[in-house]
Design brief:
- By secondary structure, the chain is of the alpha+beta class.
- The chain has one domain (2-102): Ribosome hibernation promotion factor-like (Double Stranded RNA Binding Domain), CATH 3.30.160.100.
- It contains two helices and four strands; from the N terminus they run E-H-E-E-E-H.
- It has a four-stranded mixed sheet with strand order 1-2-3-4, with helices on one face.
- Helix 1 (14-28) packs parallel to helix 2.
- The radius of gyration is 14 Å and the shape is globular.
């Protein structure tokens, strides 16, 4: 499993990497039957100012696999929240694809 992590308006610190790697690592366990070189996560984290003046994180996750591409874009006022929502959305999509492939 490869992870391409990019940021915009936020420094790419070790903590940001840890958060993303932890969440995607759990999801990656569901993809173990695929060779690691054919599974690619592309993650883009953007920080914007919300109209309330608070920071807002926009997290995009794209998962490329041999049988297709899944994509999610979510927002959160805390980085963990945005990452959790986006990874959760990818997880839900992955479960739907697995169900279709079994059926």
């Amino acid at each position: 499993m490869k992870i391409d992590l990019r940021t915009e308006n936020i420094e790419l610190t070790e903590r940001v990497r840890e958060i993303v790697n932890e969440k995607l690592g759990k999801l990656g366990k569901k993809l173990l039957k695929f060779p690691s070189d054919v599974v690619l996560f592309t993650v883009l984290i953007k920080k914007r100012k919300h109209q309330t003046g608070q920071g807002l994180f926009r997290v995009s996750v794209r998962l490329e696999m041999p049988f297709g591409v899944l994509y999610a874009k979510e927002n959160g006022y805390v980085l963990d929240e945005g990452v959790n929502k986006a990874v959760g959305s990818i997880d839900n999509q992955l479960e739907k694809v697995k169900t279709k492939l079994k059926g």
